[in-house]
Amino acid sequence: MGLGTAMDWREGLDAGDLSSEALVRAAFDRIRALDGNLHALLALDEPRSLALARAADARLGAGDRTPVLGLPIVLKDNLHWSGLPMTCGSRVLDGYVAPYDATVVRRLLEAGAVPIAKANLDEFAMGSSGEYSAFGPTRNPWDPSRVPGGSSSGSVVSVAAGYAPLALGSDTGGSVRLPASFCNVTALRPTYGVLSRYGLTAMASSLDQVGPIAATAEDLALAFQVMAGIDPQDSTSVDLPGAERLAPLQAADLKGLRIGLPKEYFAEGLEPAVQAALNEALQEFERLGARLVEVSLPHTRCAIDTYYLLCTSEVSSNLSRFDGVRFGLRVRPAEGGLPEMIAETRDQGLGSEVKRRILLGTFCLSKGYYDAFYLKALKARTLITGDFRTAFAEADILASPVSPGTAFPFGAKTEDPLAMYLADAFTVPASLAGLPCLSMPAGFTGGLPVGIQLIGPALSDVRLLETAHAFQSATRHHLETPTLSA
Questions:
Q1: Which listed residue, 12, 307, 447, 459, has the most CB atoms within 10 A of its CB?
Q2: Omega of the bond prior to 158 within 30 degrees of 0, cis?
Q3: pLDDT per residue over 31-53, tens digit each?
Q4: Does the pLDDT value for residue 486 go beyond 70?
Q5: How far is CA 420 from the centre of its chain?
Q6: Residue 200: which of 241, 68, 468, 190 has the closest Cα?
Q7: Residues near 211 by Cβ (< 8 Å), separated by ≥ 6?
Q8: What residues are labeled active site?
Q9: pTM value?
């Protein structure tokens, strides 16, 4: 069965030309053919997925037409799906089986979506390349010698490789947007709180958000409408204004739209070929009637430092639960008691990047350094958020690069953590401000995808998707797929 967008499959299912069971069987055939090379997935339960597909077909036969009914979807392996293992890409959760469904997963299941697999990721979602999974890296389908981006590497590759038309990842500092740019798909980081975090394993609680992934903005809207809204299990959840406009999504009229270009994002360090692809995309926006205006986000220079101080501090707190006592791996030392068991479990169960962030965060929160680092970072976050507020007085949305370059070769940055962290330079500011932002294909250079990022004011998620849909209705970059062989 050929590749198609979620909307293609939605139309076929509703017309009776396709069945969910046939789509799911084809998905597993494709996984068996390709995933030995790409390594995008960690856990599957084919009989269970086929049973869900047959149930979806029964609902379709009875006239049900919910947006995601019968569509296959892949879940990042830090989201709980009851009955399947959940590893977060880490050995420390060896043997852990999810006892419940995350809220976003439950809402998708109730709407008739068919989860088919749990996706590989950088360990505990800490990484920008997809190289830090304890179970081995995911590979970029456009060039398997290059990284797919992270941390939602497996989720993005699952869509790019055609396993499923929809996937869920999580985005803390750019973890769906960066791999989307590297793999030529579309991904959304919603306004903080629009998607419930209940059942998403916490990395940095004030930054984490579930992020849907698909080929197009129109496809994203199908799943987003089903998942969005207040959840009593998540006190930070909020309602999404305009959610009724998501399915079917209409293209926005871009005439007169003011698109702000942050001058700090189009400066030294941006690869010329990426700049050229972005210029072409921005010219297309102008042809559609938008107006480009320069804006400034002066505290962008502080964003990486601010993000990693706050993120690692929250990591230090959230990962303290992985101690070998309550769930997952337990290493029994030859000598000693509880402290030695905890130390050995963490030493053997956690990878180097996770340990690095725990240590840095613990240092930032320690006596004598809390004021100097953590509190100062909170103040810087307020300044960064204020920059966006000022910029949105001059522009309706902002456009920027997603990454300074295209997908880089494996091993190119693993020996230099700072260089790896700088890959997030254009994605972390919006995360710190809690704003909705979207990565979508903008073109290619040297056979590798280039993404463009759109950023909107808080709770402008629907308008952002409508704007992206207008651009994608006039271009074809997002319809290009990699050539793959078993």
A1: 307
A2: no
A3: 999 999 999 999 999 999 999 99
A4: no
A5: 17
A6: 190
A7: 152, 168, 169, 170, 171, 175, 176, 177, 187, 188, 189, 190, 195
A8: 76, 151, 175
A9: 0.97
By CB atoms closer than 10 A (0-12, 13-18, 19+), residue 17 is: exposed
Q: What is the mean pLDDT of residues 265-292?
A: 96
CA distance 370 to 364: 6
SS (H, E, C) the chain: CCCCCHHHHHHHHHHCCCCHHHHHHHHHHHHHHHHHHHCCEEEECHHHHHHHHHHHHHHHHCCCCCCCCCCEEEEECCECCCCCECCCCCHHHCCCECCCCCHHHHHHHHCCCEEEEEECCCHHHCCCCCCCCCCCCCCCCCCCCECCCCCCHHHHHHHHCCCCCEEEEEECCCCCHHHHHHHCCEEEECCCCCCCCCCECCCCCCCCEEEEEECCHHHHHHHHHHHCCCECCECCCCCCCCHHHCCCCCCCCCCCCEEEEECCCCCCCCCHHHHHHHHHHHHHHHHCCCEEEEECCHHHHHHHHHHHHHHHHHHHHHHHHCCCCCCCCCCCCCCCCHHHHHHHHHHHHCCHHHHHHHHHHHHHHCCCCHHHHHHHHHHHHHHHHHHHHHHCCCCCEEEEECCCCCCCECCCCCCCHHHHHHHHCCCHHHHHHCCCEEEEEEEEECCEEEEEEEECCCCCHHHHHHHHHHHHHHCCHHHCCCCCCC
- Long-range pairs for 340-346 at CB < 8 Å and ≥24 separation? 345/92, 346/92, 346/322
pLDDT above 60 (res 343): yes
Q: What's the pLDDT score for residue 339?
A: 93
Task: Decide if pLDDT at 2 tops 60.
Answer: no
What is the token pair recorded at 400?
Answer: 């920027």
Q: Tokens standing for 410?
A: 């494996």
The structure tokens listed for 419 are: 């260089």
Residues in the chain: 486
- Is residue 174 a contact partner of residue 152, using CB atoms and an 8 Å limit? no
**Residue 283 token pair:** 């010219």
State pLDDT tens for residues 116-135: 999 999 999 999 999 999 99
> What is residue 1's predicted lDDT score, i.e. its pLDDT?
47
142-199: per-residue pLDDT in tens?
A: 999 999 999 999 999 999 999 999 999 999 999 999 999 999 999 999 999 999 999 9
Q: 366: Cβ–Cβ under 8 A, 6 or more apart, which residues?
A: none
Tokens encoding 182: 């590297």
Above pLDDT 90, what percent of the chain? 94
Alpha-carbon gap, residue 20 to 25, rounded angstroms: 9
CA neighbor of 290 nearest in space, from 428, 404, 452, 180:
452
List Cα–Cα distances, 42 to 65, 109, 168, 317, 393, in angstroms: 31, 20, 14, 26, 45
